[in-house]
Amino acid sequence: MSATVRDSCNSFLSGVGQRLAGYLNRPSVGYTPFTPSDFDTLCRTLRSGDVLLVEGQERVSNAIKYLTQSTWSHAAMYVGDSLPVAPGTAEPHRLIEVNLGEGCVSAPLSKYALFNTRICRPIGLTPDERRAVTGFMTARIGLKYDLRNVFDLLRYFFPTPPVPVRWRRRMLAFGSGDPTRAICSSLIAQAFQSVRYPILPDMRVVKARSGSRYARREILHIRHHSLFAPRDFDLSPYFQIVKPHLAEGFDPHLLEWSAQPAPEPEQVDISAA
């Protein structure tokens, strides 16, 4: 294939990819957070290295939530004040994330002020390891999403595939050659794997010593980063779920309740439909 033909083909695929990504990034109709967000408390609670899970509202978010059977469709890493403040910006960027069509970018925390979120905190990392994890993400800002790989985009157009549940997660990794072509959680998983911090490792039992029929030990194996989804940080036994209201101290006796009963839910007459 000549260079001219190859360039034309790449240009065509990139154009198609731009259109597909633009469609998938459009907001879904009717999204409202299930509970109101307390943005100020969220800001005070987050620590560098925390994973922030987000219930997204874009079309691609609906596909990811279905394929992973989860509330969470997006993940970002909180890096604190490690990023320089860009000239002319009203708010410093404290999140690093991988977005469909963009690649690895930084973002202000206020971007998700009105979304349902969850904080997943790695436990036991040393300060140096925490800096290494956030540094891994920071060093990859600007990594582009390869829009020529249209297979990565087409998989999100089939949010309800007729395949068994156990195969749906594999669809997220289909066609993903590198972390910029995978969903957001892949690059974050690589960041933690770089310091050998577990998320959901494979566990295999092997003989502890030769000659013994009973002595066994557990060996952990790192899963491939493309197989991780946002909900894995929620399910992982090695990440603490931090709820901002409880982290600051919660006293149920200080709540003010109405003396009036809640209104009855409106009845819908389905027979008239």
Automatic annotation (TrEMBL):
Matching InterPro entries: Papain-like_cys_pep_sf
The protein's name: Permuted papain-like amidase enzyme, YaeF/YiiX, C92 family
